[in-house]
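User: My collaborator sent over this chain with a note saying "see what the structure looks like." That's all I know about it. Can you take a look?
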Amino acid sequence: LTVLNAGRRYLKAEDLSGKVFVTSGLGGMSGAQAKAAVIAGCVGIIAEVDEAALLKRHKQGWLMEISNNLDHCIARLRDARKNKIALSLGYHGNVVDLWERLVYELDTTGELLVDLGSDQTSCHNPFNGGYYPVQLGFEEAKQLLSTNPRKFRTLVQESLKRHVAAINRLADKGMFFWDYGNAFLLEAQRAGADVEKRGANKTEFRYPSYVQHIMG
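Assistant: Without extra context I'll predict from the sequence alone. Here is the result:
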């Protein structure tokens, strides 16, 4: 319902075939995102750093494909988008790398390859394993979290700023991003990322909440 309503409200589209939804998280509640993309008929690319979560969703049949190669992910995205094929593709890697690759594609080809975007990392708990920084691999980040939590926190906040910068670049070209109620925008703001709404008070964000703007 969230994906369908986002398409209706922001793309003015009842039919999401050929549209691309990019997000992250395939763990608990976020695990439904891959299934939602296919039900809605769009192309869903979902990033996840934990391979166990990817394999679980794939085994359940909720995730159609898995890849750790961004070149392959972009090629599959282009093909499914062009042919209007419903697809759920799990990218085994950090979502910041995925967002930055989409910015690269925009800058080098002029193509905006994503229509809808969100995030379901566990940003309500970003410094204790809920969000993994793009600068490190999954296992390396877990080790740093246990040995130097202060450094881990710094890397998370740097990663959040890169995360938002990429989203902002794509949103400026017409992608529609929303907050999924996971404190992503709040933690990004605390990290110093550019998420504040222009001309509004500091408690308002430039991107809408799915509770008020999409489900409401």
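A starting point for your reply to your collaborator: The chain has ten helices and six strands.
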